[in-house]
Design goal:
The protein has 348 residues and is an alpha+beta fold. The chain has two domains: 189 residues, Fructose-1,6-Bisphosphatase, subunit A, domain 1 (Fructose-1,6-Bisphosphatase, Chain A, domain 1); 122 residues, D-Maltodextrin-Binding Protein, domain 2, CATH 3.40.190. 28% of the residues lie in helices and 22% in strands. The strands form three sheets. An eight-stranded mixed β-sheet has the order 4-3-5-6-7-8-9-10, sandwiched between helices. It has a five-stranded mixed β-sheet with strand order 12-11-13-15-14, with helices on both faces. Helix 1 runs antiparallel to helix 2 and helix 2 packs antiparallel against helix 3. It is globular and about 55 Å long. It starts with 19 loop residues before the first helix and ends in a 9-residue tail after the last helix. The N terminus is likely disordered. The protein binds 2,5-anhydro-1,6-di-O-phosphono-D-mannitol (AHM) and magnesium ion.
């Protein structure tokens, strides 16, 4: 019999076991006078995303695969899992007393919860299941969320005004990717941190502390089938990336699930784009619950996010489902893109 290794197995690393709840509690200490309500709020999101991932993992085995037949406010066919995910988030968040307003991609209007409660000071804006049309073919999907505080002077019964704020007012944002593992990435404005769900214990464990986006990546990510209808400077940018103008020839990666494409870009660098097209002159992605959380995380990780002309986080929204073009990624690629923004473009 072999004698045990004196210091334990040489192959076993002792992992740092930090759950997302512990991490949130630590982060909360940065907010003076924080009472725990914010961590309780975020725990509603972690619980909901665990419930969603459980159904996503079983999608082919249950009756939740495929389209429901209904059409949402964007005119898109709702998948059954869109509806389920939306309900689960609404249920888990509406019992958090600190939340006054919920706004979702799947609901035309923001929902007022805890009507009249002075303790309800936060709004949560989310896309419950981004990329859901990919589920039928087992491709990664995700949830995105953005948390805002009720602005000074806004009444409790004016839910739209709670959420029509620029992204620079977000106090926290994040996403969950339901991919080969389930990973939650979030920031409260103090760096970006990733937590992998350990399915054996049902807890999100810190796996990617302090994520930094590389200064330059290897990939560009865009739906090139629309290339002929992009404004010319987008197509020219892609040409420069492919030609090696930035010191290397870029390869293309496009999953068609924003959360998954952005997650790769956050970890590996490079650039993800959803430009204006003829059919979607404002791009396809929604400002409040898709572009804003992604832009917040990108900037917190040392990257950049623009709408093709100006900083995404500075856009003043007019409506909750408004769309925006999006260019997000590493500093080097974004600096090259910005060099060709015409000087008369709005916001420049
Ligand atoms: P959805 O919110 O209705 O799921 O649509 C958003 C998705 C994004 O995840 C993805 O980046 C984009 O649609 C892909 O669109 P396209 O097929 O036009 O490339
Ligand atoms: Mg969606």
């Amino acid at each position: 019999m072999t004698a045990p290794h004196p210091g334990g197995s040489p192959h076993l690393r002792t992992p740092t076991r930090i759950t997302v709840q512990q991490h949130i509690l630590q982060e909360q200490k940065r907010f003076p006078g924080a009472s725990g309500e914010f961590s309780w709020l975020l725990s509603g999101i972690t619980l909901a995303t665990k419930l969603i991932q459980a159904q996503v993992r079983r999608a082919g085995l249950t009756d939740l695969l495929g389209a429901d037949g209904a059409v949402n406010v964007q005119g898109e066919v709702q998948q059954k899992l869109d509806i389920y995910s939306n309900e689960v988030l609404a249920q888990c968040l509406s019992v958090r007393e600190s939340i006054g307003v919920l706004a979702s991609e799947e609901n035309e209007q923001p929902i007022l919860v805890h009507r009249g409660s002075e303790n309800a000071n936060y709004a949560v804006v989310f896309d419950p299941l981004d990329g859901s049309s990919n589920i039928d073919v087992n491709v990664s999907v995700g949830t995105t969320f953005s948390i805002l505080r009720r602005p000074e002077g806004v009444e409790l019964h004016e839910p739209e005004k709670w959420v029509l704020q620029p992204g620079n007012k977000q106090i926290a944002a994040g996403y969950v990717v339901y991919g080969s593992s389930t990973i939650l990435v979030y920031s409260v404005g103090n760096g970006v941190h990733g937590f992998t769900l350990d399915p054996s214990i049902g807890a999100y464990m810190l796996s990617h502390p302090n994520i930094r986006m590389p200064e330059q990546g290897k990939y560009y990510s865009v739906n090139e089938s629309y290339r002929d209808s992009f404004p010319p400077r987008y197509a020219q940018f892609i040409d420069r990336l492919r030609a090696g103008t930035l010191g290397q020839r870029y390869a293309s990666r496009y999953i068609g699930s924003m959360v998954a494409d952005v997650h790769r870009t956050l970890l590996k660098g490079g650039v993800f784009l959803y430009p204006p097209t003829t059919d979607n002159p404002q791009g396809k992605l929604r400002l409040l619950y898709e572009a804003n959380p992604v832009a917040f995380l990108a900037e917190q990780a040392g990257g950049m996010a623009i709408d093709g002309e100006r900083r995404v986080l500075d856009i003043e929204p007019d409506s909750i489902h408004q769309r925006t073009p999006l260019v997000v990624g590493s500093r080097m690629e974004l600096a090259d893109f910005e060099r060709f923004i015409p000087s008369d473009a709005a916001g420049v």
